[in-house]
């Protein structure tokens, strides 16, 4: 069972919303004969991780360092950084929106990612997952700035470090022959200069 | 009993502030270094054990501003001219890191010197209408010993004699160049065939173990990332030396909001801690090393009134010429950039002809970096969505099969290009933010077009089948297609000129030794001082200049001139 079907309490979207999101992600980057698409590579989980960043502590904003453990060293990416009070203010404003709270509206009202996803998925419609692919694409093309936002996040979910919830089993990186973070091993000099 | 705890307050922990701390503490003075951002670099209690926080993580650094400043918490504003009203854009304007180590942390460490001519552009080349071109109040020869010191301190890898346009040097580079990147070998060979003079770029990343830090292991996360293994020496080396004396305190998460001034002398600073509480710190003197955006902001917040503060802001006009090749070049393996050429900095016959055809007396280009893109999220976002996405990511025409150049074109100083205080936008602490008013001079556009054509011929020579160019700020035809407000903001992280040094307080902010005309116990110690920016990255020069000026500040001018 994928997490898109699971109904996990640390996730922001409802089951119905997740189905729409997964169907949209599948159109943005579909799987092909050579590798997984956005859904198989965990882009939905990445987006849920961002929308629900503050449902866990420390919030899923900045992964730890210096090493993931994939190429040696002690694995530390999974220990996310704590945020200071003002950093939390910035990221809650981005994710939850300003909601009329004065300190979040210093530069004017902010539509949060949660609100943009809620509205964007609603506009795609409850029937979106059941539509034929060409109709799904038509609705996506009509989605305006939500399409841009969603595509940015799909790219991040496919090719970001897996500790953020996407790039499941390194599927995004593997499918393009990219190793990702390689510290502390690095690359040998021959690989720098050779073809 | 003294009224203060430290002789000197230093504002900013980047390459300039760290260098000043090193010089002052070695001269026996006590310093406190204020840094508005976090400390992820060096544990003051154990300066020999560098902190292990930085990571190879594109999301964290490129998308989520881990090194700060968060453009919502600490925005800057931008407009091209007063005709735009109060501002066009709020957010990211030249967001150099706000973190201990400053711009040195995120840089990929290309550390060239300026050429002799760069210190006397007005005398050598003459004035240009609409620009405030000026000579520096010092020569290359004055600065050469300090360049040598700076290269040894940071640890610069390079090859003396490899660049025929390089200024004279008194000593070899402290380290040999690191391994050349494959793409740079291809573009270098093509450039040589056409008569250009590529050479291994002087780089502040260790090619061999140096100063107790390891050699770079080619991880590919250089520009925009902190180094997980501290193979980059800038400004770790200087900061560590300062802390090891026991006479330096590093105060992170501490924002200096005002220099306190009494009867034409600074008496200390007002600063705001991470909880928003305001404090005072007193001292004998104050060094401002906050960078060419934040330094003029602080001077203006402090009530200094010299009309030149914030003016003559310069960036680099970046010209990109890139070509798609039918094989992979793996720009993600190596230290971002390993080769450069300086031919476009020279005002030769063809450059003069191109200038004259455009009604200008001369044009200068800049340092050309031989570069290939490295990062995959940035690449993915360039491709369209749909079935093509996976195929394009595998074929990688915009990353793994892309070679070419970025020219850091010299930007002429203009009095109307400036930093001032935004009339209403405040940062999260409630302090007015820096507003930039900036548009390129025609010189930069003409130079970009002329030298861009030369770069295009080199890319053609490599056998690339699709070639394209772009500039930042966006100009020409592209500006009519891409007309977003953000595209008008230069993406260059190189800035200078906003507290110009000179011999006349009517035309400069600081005297020829970097001291503020309005309060001579305030030393400005960053690229704000530069009368002209040249076509080279400013870091090594601002470090060398800080060494020269702080030694003079200590009353050791004799030593400086000797």
List the helices and strands and how they pair.
The complex is a heterodimer of chains A (195) and B (562).
Chain A (H helix, E strand, L loop, with lengths): L14 H14 L14 H9 L33 H12 L16 H12 L8 H9 L3 H15 L11 H4 L14 H5 L2
Helix pairs in contact in A: 2-6
Chain B lengths: L7 E4 L3 H12 L4 E4 L23 H6 L12 E4 L9 E3 L11 H4 L14 H5 L14 H15 L27 H12 L5 E2 L35 H9 L3 E4 L3 E8 L2 E8 L5 E5 L2 E4 L2 H11 L15 E8 L12 E5 L7 H9 L8 E6 L4 H5 L7 H8 L6 E8 L8 E9 L5 E6 L4 H20 L4 E7 L3 H6 L33 E2 L2 E6 L14 H15 L3 H5 L1
Parallel strand pairs in B: 1-2, 1-10, 2-6, 3-16, 10-19
Antiparallel strand pairs in B: 3-4, 5-12, 7-8, 8-9, 11-14, 11-17, 12-13, 13-14, 15-16, 18-19
Helix pairs in contact in B: 1-7, 1-14, 5-14
Keywords:
heterodimer; A: 195 residues; mainly alpha; B: 562 residues; alpha/beta; 25% helix; disordered C terminus
Summarize the structure.
The complex is a heterodimer of chains A (195) and B (562). With 195 residues, chain A is an all-alpha fold.
